[in-house]
Fold this sequence. Notes:
two-stranded antiparallel sheet, alpha+beta, 15% helix, six-stranded antiparallel beta sheet
Amino acid sequence: MAKNKLEITYDYDFSLFALNANVKAYKLAWSVNNQLKIDLSKKDNIELSFTAGRNLSIVNYLDQDTYRTIRLLRNRAEESEGQFDAFIVPEMKNFDYFIVLENESSTFDENVFFSKIKEIPFVQFATKVNIESLKSRDNLIF
């Protein structure tokens, strides 16, 4: 009998920024809010389930309006019982946080957004990530 294989391709229609910041997530979210005049607020952690009953709990801050969504994610999973110490994007474990930007507005300037992020005193390093080059990019689709 012939076997069929289901292949799924996702549309990665968002921008990804990786940040190094040696602060707690709430302090970084507060700084981003002040610098960019947005309203990131704490939401429920994102739970990712893997094989063998392994789970990741990712810190999640969100600011959403009609035309754009900004999400601040911590790269390292929160430690708790029944979870393992892992990263949402393992090939970029040297970065502490990610900002996922979904933007459909033509008036929003991504370059200004990125330059303001780099001005935050806690942010030691920031870079824009090519999503297509990531092996674990599917972990960023919620």
